[in-house]
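cron nightly-structures :: item 1 of 1
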Amino acid sequence: MSKGKKRLLSLAGGLLALLLAALIALGLLFHREFSTLTSIRKLDDAPFYVMDYTADYGLEEFLAQGASSDQELSAFVIQKLMKGLPVTITLPDLSCSTFNARLENGDAVFGRNFDNPIKPCMLVHTAPEDGYESISMVNLGYVGYGGDYVPEGFPASLLSLAAPYIPLDGVNEKGLSIGVLQLDVEPTHQDNGHTDITTSSAIRLILDRAATVDEAVELLRRYDMHSSANACFHFQIADAHGSSVVAEYVDGQLSLIRPEENYQWCTNFFLSPGELYNVGRGQDRYETLKQLLAQSNGLLPDENAAMDCLEAVAQDSTFWSAVYNNTNATVELTLHGNYEKSYRFDLEQW
């Protein structure tokens, strides 16, 4: 063998050894998270993934310090979950629709269209020792995934460890559902002397700690809200008892809109009485949902009818449509306007 070939073989061997050492180091660093990352499954070329998050994401530790911006939330995630590896959390425009209603069999349901440019999405299952088990939907584009960069393989999947802190809608074991919708005004920044939280971390808090709408509202009162992505948001929250509320922030104060009927619906404009009422967009979707729900006084035949309501207000940008059954803690999902194909999940399958 020539000296040149020997040098090439030696170099290749050295590079292979370095790569192996790097992989071993990553494995040792993330040994507690390894089972979480290896649970990731791709279910659809949307692309759509499912992850069983078994690692500790440290909600109690987060709540002890809080975060007043996406940057501060990212810093916590980097330190606690990413072991120093960089991640940036950003939430772009969310033009969405939500509603709650009853089925003829008595089940309480919560419908949600998430309207946003297409990125990889993921259903995340969490079962913390100090909170409620839940399933929630995440747009992985918020931590940098997109195009050919997807959470497949150990190194490429590391950023998905941030997923518990960027949920957009979900349901927990008590039948409490929540969805976030954007408003087109200045971002909310409360300063009442409470611990700070951001839009997406508030959803994590509520899914982990609230069993009813009233408990969710009480949690929002305990923390100072700071909007993500230099925008403003409101939440619709519904529970297994059929209760619902839209929670929004007006002049830095939490405002609650309770339904006059036994159902409620929401899009992307303010519902609180006053100067901001009707400011925003989505009035056409709002009126469509209003008419569809009023036809049956909020009593739908089945989950298919709930999905039909979401289809009626879907947009070209609708990323996913989700019908959460709060009575049974399940979700039926369709992707990118393909209402002929759906995925069903429940907490009992984990």
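cron nightly-structures :: done
The longest helix spans residues 3-29.
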